[in-house]
Amino acid sequence: MKTFQPWHQYPLISKQLKKVNQCIMDTIQTSYADLQNALLAMADNGGKYLRPSMLILAGKASMPEKETSTTIIQLASSIEVLHMATLIHDDIIDDSDRRRGKISIQARFGKDIAVYAGDLLFTHFFDLMLKATDNHQYLVKNAQTMHAVLNGELGQMDERFNMKQTFNDYLADVKGKTAALFKLAAEEGAFFSGASADRISALASFGENIGIAFQIIDDILDYTGGTKLNKPVLEDLVTGVYSLPLLVALQDEAANEKLVPLLAKKREMTKDDIKAVQTIILNSSAIDKSRQLAKKYTDQAIAALMTLPESSARTILIKMTDQLLTRRI
Amino acid sequence: MKTFQPWHQYPLISKQLKKVNQCIMDTIQTSYADLQNALLAMADNGGKYLRPSMLILAGKASMPEKETSTTIIQLASSIEVLHMATLIHDDIIDDSDRRRGKISIQARFGKDIAVYAGDLLFTHFFDLMLKATDNHQYLVKNAQTMHAVLNGELGQMDERFNMKQTFNDYLADVKGKTAALFKLAAEEGAFFSGASADRISALASFGENIGIAFQIIDDILDYTGGTKLNKPVLEDLVTGVYSLPLLVALQDEAANEKLVPLLAKKREMTKDDIKAVQTIILNSSAIDKSRQLAKKYTDQAIAALMTLPESSARTILIKMTDQLLTRRI
User: Fold this and answer.
1) Which among B119, B136, B146 has the least Cβ separation from residue A89?
2) Per-residue b or e along A165-187, where b marks 16 or more CB atoms closer than 10 Å to that residue's CB
3) In this predicted model, what pLDDT tens digit does every residue of B102-127 receive, in sequence order?
4) For residue B177, what is the nearest residue in chain A, using CA coordinates?
5) Hey, what domains does chain B have and what are their CATH numbers?
6) Taking a C-beta distance cutoff of 8 angstroms, is the pair A222, A243 a contact?
7) ipTM for the complex?
């Protein structure tokens, strides 16, 4: 099987993404040979390298004349490794069999190994970060970001089956579990390229806004995307995680009346019940309204980019943002 | 119920351990209120604070005139939080219902929450470490220690059901999963008290050796300690983790002959099979030989301490080391 090479996607940074890939492959180290191979395969295969791409492009967009440094490569790698660690642990929670088109670590090695495998990658995240920089302010920012990610995940767990959840509760969790890492990537890319405070803060704002939009679209696709890759549809709903489309539908009186008795069954919902919830949402204006909200965040992301000088990197970032709104998988 | 106060155990450092306790309580932060309370209870209740004690005492033993600094308190707290994180994840692997005399996080909240709860504490470990110091060499040492712990756990998983496992394989895993953290604690205590290179290395050696002895005794108690608290007896054996007493018994021809057909059943071993394995080991010289080996490591730990000047802290560390050999729970 041909290895998927994410760096083909963005020729402007293909050389750099290749280095990121090499850096990650060189970093992963465990005495458990089978697991080592599985982690290397996961790192090498199917990842879109979205976060590393964003970090490198943020560097180039904020300082178009600057060469990408080794520090930037190591930080981009650290963020992808942190992302991989959270994916492995998420798959335990979600009981997912597939990840990036391959059998997941938890399905192949069991949940026990998957717990430690994720932990191992957390340690590699810190290795890489400490190799990249001794800037204390940014080391602290990294620790805070990891905390925000976990706290977002835990906040979401705490809200399970809560029909009274507000949009602000949802947004707080999304800012943590998804947007914090995008924000860090874009901000670090700018800071470690030596950009001015204004540009760093523009990139941070871009990262956070695109991260929120990314998660909203992900949650929309959970309801609309029957063909969504690598993830069983509506798994969130089954486990009591009520994402934006459902929360919006619950605001609609007619939809609410039909949804409440179904949701009240909680874990006892049958496949037909779940299908019914999906149909109610698709027949309401919830998907449209959710998409409008995602657009609000991509608009803000683009507005932040527009404060930067014109450059090829900025053009790609704008294109990535636009594509986000129309992605179907 | 009266809260267990570990700092009563060592009057010389009771004030400092109280501060460690406060520092940990102030650090744990999540928006999931029930989990927050459970983590605070875990931090406050039943922990022996063995590693923080060792760190603080290592500081005092290496620099008897020096007051314990805030840095030392924060590092001692960081090591206990890292230890808590590994305990929470270990309980997922072992399916343990009890921890520190209370219901475990995984039994109370489910494995899903426990995965994230351990991850959350990993982030607090880094928070505290970065709050304590910007010494890059020691930040890297912390990341390496976390890597050693995980790699030791994974090495052990990789060796499951392997009857050909050597003592060196066992030792390598123990050095990682248990001794690395003791070594770091003792070494950091000395370094951050401003001790000389000789004393730092003596304390590092003390920490590693006592850590190895600690794990050997733990593994002996798994076979001998029918009354062992908070942990089902022989759970390691059931999951295919062959610890020192079993590996030693397998070296004995007569015991080997009886053990091999039982162990060959792997996960299919019945309760009677497990009891039979235990009886074979108790009737062999394996426990004695394992205990002799533990003594070799506590002797080395004490030899390292004897290179330090006489002090009350050194006296306590020697006493702790002696007690280790005779502990029954």
Assistant:
1) B119
2) beeebbbbbbbbbbbbbbbbbbb
3) 788 888 888 888 999 999 999 999 99
4) A116
5) 12-326 (1.10.600.10)
6) yes
7) 0.90
